Amino acid sequence: MKAIKDSVHDHIPVCPLASDLLDTPELQRLRHIKQLSTVRLVYPSANHTRFEHSLGVYYLAREACSLLGVEGQRAKAVRAAALLHDVGHGPYGHQTEGIIERRLGKHHDEVGDLLASGRLADVLESHGLSPAEVAELVEGQGKLGQLVAGELDVDRMDYLVRDAHHTGVPYGTIDHSRLLAALQFRDDELVLSAGNVQTAEGTLVARTLMNATVYRHHVSRIAGEMLERASERLLDSTDLDAAQFARMTDARLLGTLRDCEETADAARRLEHRDLYKRAVWAKFDAVPESVVSADREAVRSFERDIAGVAGVSPEEVLVDTPGEPSMPETSTRVVVDGEVRRLADESPLVEGLRAAGRAQWRLGVYAPEESVSEVCAAAERVLGVEVE
What we know:
The chain has 388 residues and is mostly helical.
């Protein structure tokens, strides 16, 4: 069995199934999609890819199956699903996910069509696996699907450690070895064994701190909003098919944006890091509930109204609302006194971390530097926000 050297997990043993999957064009495409998308405009060393991450998730899934006693074809299916869990991502990963969902009506975890035919299907079937069953595992279905997509999944274990490693920040460092060793099934539900409330808390703290310093950094959010709006204009003004768009790489999308007259300026700004600036950066309590919970169409209406009041082009106003603050990891199940309980019911840290999440929350309104003052005043009037 050969091994691949990894920056996080050292040497990763690669089974014949994984070796064959890695050689497919679908998985090789992930070499050209950055794991942290526009975050690399903040942290220059954050250039790792979804290919590396997929290898890491495969490794952790392999370890989890071994510790849980999952063997044979069932373990092979879990390893395959772990390796393929990101194969449905579009260019720039989560930054274009909303566009793909709206245009194609499916989430990146819904990979049934990608696995149904072609090279991936051939490889899976040659190893005695059902592509449909592997697709279900990728979506988190069934008992073993929880290992791939759930509150205690190996995806989260890898990306927190890997993202911390490549950005250079210490906050995402979690004890993934302890997490793996603590996993067990209770009535087909994946839980942490007794004595691991603190283990779960560590993951929750890491995610909260990574959100504040990495995942929701304002520069990355601005670039992400610029990229999303430009991608929408690209699809609306050209004959580019949404399905083709979803299979692009980062570089191909940027090049296509550069070659389109409607999006060339946005591409230049993204390429040169000549980004819009914050006209509004408002705390949760300073924003009306109707703005916090606004859907996409309402947000676009806000942008047009603000642009009209400010006297600028609608393309020069971006409203970025993250929605209601949430922390799904608090539903992690932990065994306490012989019973399976929710982390939120057992950890005194949860309420503090929820408060931290609300304190970190910001509504952003972005505009070119020369229009910031006008857009700020217009946004305050249109949105009813209290601008400090």
